Amino acid sequence: MSETLYTQPLSATGFAPFGEVLEPTGAPDKIINQGLCGRFHDRAALDFDDGRAGISLFQAQLRSLPYRLEMMERHPQGSQAFVPMDSGAFLIVVAPDADRQPGQPQAFLTAPGQAINIRRNTWHGVLCPLAGSGLFAVIDRIGAGANLQEHWFETPYIVQENP
Fold first, then answer.
1. d(Cα 38, Cα 133) in Å, to the nearest integer?
2. Chain centroid offset of residue 30 CA
3. Backbone angles phi, psi at 18, to 5 degrees
4. pTM to 2 decimals?
5. What digits encode the pLDDT tens for the residues 49-108?
6. What is the distance of C-alpha 72 from the center of its chain?
């Protein structure tokens, strides 16, 4: 038997316990390039134990809803930002820590122009593009040492779009 988990639109307020939503909201902090470019400055707190920040490209297979959530992971040594390279929506599942395992998951759906930065040690699902090419720029910790913990659920969750 599976438990149903319903999605909600991604918002800065709803996602705040898990990280930052990266989107150009409000007026730009600075106008640069001879007045032709607005800079939305310092929108994510990158956080690493040691090592350095690196940018990698991930090519993920498209998924669909309903989605079967069987596993979550976290990275104890660094935050992880996911920036889609196209405007396709993606699914984000995050959970608070509950005694070194995921607590109750929450599911979010992105809108065009949104990216996320997941805080260090935050439980999250795998990369789940729902549309577009599945290509993401990922900014995360590059360095030695184990930086991945996985938790497999005895009973999976079924993630569905909120009716």
1. 27
2. 26
3. -110, -15
4. 0.93
5. 889 999 999 999 999 999 999 999 999 999 999 999 999 999 999 999 999 999 999 999
6. 12
Domains of the chain: 3-160 (2.60.120.480)
Given the DSSP bridges, would you call strands 123-124 and 90-95 parallel, antiparallel or unpaired?
antiparallel
Tell me the C-alpha distance between 74 and 138, whole Å. Answer: 15
Structure tokens given for 133: 């090419």
How far is residue 141's CA from residue 78's CA, in Å, rounded to a whole number? 5
> β-pairing, 128-129 with 80-84?
unpaired
| CA distances for 14 relative to 11, 41, 56, 99, 152, angstroms | 5, 21, 27, 22, 25
- The amino acid occupying position 131 is A
